[in-house]
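Section 3.1: Structural characterization of target chains.
Under the original work plan, the team committed to producing a structural model for every single-chain target entering the pipeline before any wet-lab resources were allocated. The record below documents one such target. The sequence was received from the expression subgroup and is listed exactly as submitted; it comprises 104 residues.
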Amino acid sequence: MESILKTEYSDQFDLERKHRIEVSYYKYGPARENFGSGRVDALATAELCIEAFKKDYNTEHLVDAANYLMFRYKYPMPGEFFQPTDSKNSVGTVGTPINFEKEI
């Protein structure tokens, strides 16, 4: 597992996310009040961050988007749920993953 995570995961990304969470707590207030109550739309805000990244390529926007998505996961809106899916129900990918080429 550790050897996979060494190349497939970014601890720096998590560190950047955590730093921004700390700053945001003081700037905007507690996440549980902003997102848990629906005062701030985490999903729509994440989409704004992704659109900003597409314009200026500043990867900080991706860190921010990840935080907003995490807030949506942590504070789901009514009717939202987590349910693992198999490959049959996956949304798939845009592009061809390397392992899919091996199957051809």
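Residues 11-28 form the longest helix (18 residues).
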